[in-house]
Amino acid sequence: MEAIVRQESGWILSQQLASGAVITAYPGQPKIVPYFGHLALYGLAAWGFSLSRVRAYLDWYLAHLERPDRYGVTGTVYDYYLDERGAEVPAYTYDSSDSYAATFLTLVRLYYGNSGDRAWLKNHRQELELVAGAMLATLQKDNLTLARSDWRVKYLMDNCEVYRGLKDYAWLLAEAGNTGEAERYEALAGKVREAMEAKMRVNGGYCPAIYRAGLRRRPNWKKWYPDALAQLFPIITGVLTPREEAARRLYANFLRNYPHWYRQTQPENFITTLVAYAATLMEDRWRVRQYVEGLEENIIARGHPWPYHAAEAGILLLALKTYLAGDAKE
């Protein structure tokens, strides 16, 4: 597993452009999707690898903040595509304003936690505040965020990531000595968590989305995305701690519906590494080992075929860091 960590770290870096941006190698045309860039670099930052390259990405993101964007939101970053000359061209849209911003702040925390780069944190204080504002731009009175100002759906995945982003930004503010602001963001995180528990929790799981007029959709466990995968996000983002009964029940329900997820490592039936990360947090070590062995044989050894991309590798590094820490304890 340590060899895979080294290999995948190098492969993630091979997906980074000279500008600092990280590409997602979609079939046909690579794109710069900041959300996936954040997840790709989670692994490097968590391991403390190539932190100067992580910082180069952070600088790229902050240099591309919109003030405001086409939706009237300040502090967001569009997706970009590469033209025939390799120039980065804005797509003038993004999948979500809440998750892009939240996951960026989580990446900053991982970077700072391993670099101690106080100067960078101080120099970019105002820009980070803009990103935090973008994360909360769609926060509603019920303390849940909409994915985008023109897409009025409150997703479980997004709000889990917002909870984590708020917690991480509060930590960064405390590190910078801004105790009052840190407490404010910590309190906001608590409100988002309470809102998810009150409005999205259903028997044995969470509704994956709340639509206009408060319409709640119960999870269809047989529908992989977003329903079933979303159920793991409270565990992945720390909304639930792995030892909580609610987390154990959630993961048991997942296994009941996907008992052989660890076998799905072929490109045609690939299950995201996010599942392996959740399984690692839940100490499901046997299934994680089986999954990683299949991933090495069917994906890594075959040159990383789609749908595996840099974000998958980044989350794999997170999973393996947690797994190997468990080895050390044993």
Automatic annotation (TrEMBL):
UniProt keyword Kinase present: no
Gene3D superfamilies listed in its UniProt record: 1.50.10.10
Single annotated GO MF: DNA binding
Keyword DNA-binding: yes
UniProt KW keywords: DNA-binding
GO biological process: one example: carbohydrate metabolic process
Signal sequence bounds: none
Lineage top rank: taxon: Bacteria
The protein's name: Response regulator containing a CheY-like receiver domain and an HTH DNA-binding domain
Originating organism: Moorella thermoacetica Y72
